[in-house]
Structure formats: C-alpha cells, structure tokens
C-alpha cells in the first residue's frame, strides 16, 4: 500500500514521522508534499527513501491512501486539484474536524474517511479518532484501523461527538501543558525551587500518572482518594482547586464549540451539506 501525505505542517509531519517510526510503513512506500516544498524536504533528510512529490497531484497519483493535512478552508481546493488522480479504488482521509465525513464524501469519487490525530501519536501513544463515509470500502476501514493502531489507540466516533472528542484527544495535550506550566510557575514564584527542577519533577510526575492509568492500577477518582489523605496537605490543595476553578472547563468547551460552529458555517459555503 502506497501512502501519501499532502501538507507537512505540524500534524502532517507528526503522522509521517509516527507512521515510519511505528514500523508499519516503510519510507519508500510514503510520499509527502507541501505547498512550500522546502518545508517537506527536511523529512527526506531524516528518513532515507522517503519520497517528496512536486505537488498534490503527484502524491495523489502515486498513492492508494491519501491524507489531506491542510487547514480546513484549503481542503476543498486541494481535493479539487487532484480529482483526476482519485480513482475508485483509492481512499482520501481528512484530518480536520470542521469538515464532516458526508461533506468529504460528497466531493470525492472514492472511499473517504476522517482521522483526527493527537500530538501524543508522535510518541506512538494516545488516541486517534476515526470516522468513515457511507461508501468507504471495508478494506480501507480495516487498513486504517491497523495503521493507526501502530501509533495510537484508534477509536471510531459518531459525528455528533466529533468536537468534544477532538477537544479531549487533540486539544487536551495543549490544555494540560498550559495548566502544568502554570503549576510549575506558581511553584517557582511561591517557593525556593528553581524552574529546571520544578519542570523535571512535574514532567516525571505526569509520566508516572499516565502509567498508573494505563496499567489500570487506579481510576482518576480512586487515585485522588489514595493521595488525598483526610486532614492532609493534598486535601488543602484540593480545596483551593475546588474553590478557584469553578466552571473553567465548562467555559473551555463552550469556547471551543463556539469556534467550531463558526468553522462549520464557513465550510457550508464550500460543500453541498
């Protein structure tokens, strides 16, 4: 199977690196391109044998499975430019949430799917979100699930939870990175610990927390119970969090969904759905 990646920005690059490092895709079976071609060439220096196409048409011609990794408002134009290369047996995959799988399927003559990755996939970890078009060949469903299983835990989702699932899986690492950075900064400001030590401790704590959850030793509630001993120091900290956080996370989801609604309105101008 030949795989193509059109767009080597943050997520296009991460997918390229993860697919190869995951061991299921050989560099020579992968072709990438970017509107500014110079941004794709550095990957070829890292992975010997990786192909760089001169444009999107070259990638689509060469590939059986084609990932469109560009901004939402550019997806329609990219797909329009490669229509002649999209034979019935191929599959086009969008990685952006504002474009529904029905909208994508309405403009391609082949199988269509959506795969929303996470930056955690670069470490061959985390979750990827999969959705398939009504005409998507069963072969491609199997192939996509296997491909993403090599770099993540793939989860098939319905259209109605696309945004919130993306908030948790794809935006979540940025949200929690921000919270952790604030946690570190507060420690440095309020105590004698230095930035480097606080950052190392916080990073290793997060890795350990992830392992506890991954291995199933605790759930989030039972973990809190184990650490938060009645009358102890952790409990005092939890009281502050309960008091100060309020509905901050509810507001986060309201904000992301409001922006998503704006994006959906823009996409309706390009698609028939």
UniProtKB/TrEMBL annotation:
Domain (Pyrroline-5-carboxylate reductase catalytic N-terminal): residue spans on this chain: 2-97
Record GO biological process: L-proline biosynthetic process
Binding site for NADP(+): 6-11
Organism superkingdom: Bacteria
GO cellular component terms attached to this protein's record: cytoplasm
Compartmental location: Cytoplasm
Main location: cytoplasm
Catalytic activity: L-proline + NADP(+) = (S)-1-pyrroline-5-carboxylate + NADPH + 2 H(+); L-proline + NAD(+) = (S)-1-pyrroline-5-carboxylate + NADH + 2 H(+)
InterPro entries: 6-PGluconate_DH-like_C_sf (IPR008927), NAD(P)-bd_dom_sf (IPR036291), P5C_Rdtase_cat_N (IPR028939), P5CR-like_CS (IPR053790), P5CR_dimer (IPR029036), Pyrroline-COOH_reductase (IPR000304)
GO molecular function, one term: pyrroline-5-carboxylate reductase activity
Domain Pyrroline-5-carboxylate reductase dimerisation: 160-259
Keyword ATP-binding: no
EC id: 1.5.1.2
Coiled coil: none
Pathway as given in its UniProt record: Amino-acid biosynthesis; L-proline biosynthesis; L-proline from L-glutamate 5-semialdehyde: step 1/1
The entry's keywords: Amino-acid biosynthesis, Cytoplasm, NADP, Oxidoreductase, Proline biosynthesis
UniProt enzyme class: oxidoreductase
Function: Catalyzes the reduction of 1-pyrroline-5-carboxylate (PCA) to L-proline.
PANTHER family for this protein: COME OPERON PROTEIN 4 (PTHR11645:SF51), PYRROLINE-5-CARBOXYLATE REDUCTASE (PTHR11645)
Protein family membership: Belongs to the pyrroline-5-carboxylate reductase family.
This protein's name: Pyrroline-5-carboxylate reductase
Lineage of the organism: Bacteria, Bacillati, Bacillota, Bacilli, Bacillales
């Amino acid at each position: 199977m030949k795989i193509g990646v059109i767009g080597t920005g943050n997520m296009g690059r991460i997918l390229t690196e993860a697919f190869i490092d995951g061991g299921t895709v050989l560099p020579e079976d992968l072709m990438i391109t970017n509107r500014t071609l110079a941004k794709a060439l550095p990957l070829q220096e890292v992975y010997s044998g990786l192909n760089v196409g001169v444009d999107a048409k070259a990638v689509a011609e060469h590939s059986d499975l084609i990932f469109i990794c560009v901004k939402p408002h550019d997806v329609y134009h990219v797909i329009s430019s490669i229509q002649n290369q999209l034979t019935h047996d191929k599959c086009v995959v969008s990685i952006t949430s504002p474009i529904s799988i029905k909208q994508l399927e309405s403009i391609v003559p082949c199988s269509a799917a959506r795969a929303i990755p996470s930056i955690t996939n670069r470490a061959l970890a985390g979750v990827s979100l999969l959705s398939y078009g009504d005409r998507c060949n069963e072969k491609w469903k199997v192939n996509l699930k296997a491909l993403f299983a090599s770099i993540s835990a793939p989860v098939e989702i319905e259209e109605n939870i696309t945004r919130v699932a993306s908030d948790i899986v794809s935006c979540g690492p940025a949200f929690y990175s921000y919270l952790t950075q604030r946690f570190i900064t507060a420690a440095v400001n309020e105590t004698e610990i230095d930035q480097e030590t606080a950052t190392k401790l916080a990073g290793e704590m997060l890795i350990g927390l992830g392992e506890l959850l991954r291995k199933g030793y605790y759930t989030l509630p039972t973990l809190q119970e184990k650490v938060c001993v009645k009358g102890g120091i952790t409990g005092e900290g939890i009281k502050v969090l309960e008091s100060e956080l309020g509905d901050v996370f509810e507001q986060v989801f309201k904000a992301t969904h409001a922006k998503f609604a704006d994006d959906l309105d823009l996409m309706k101008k390009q698609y028939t759905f």
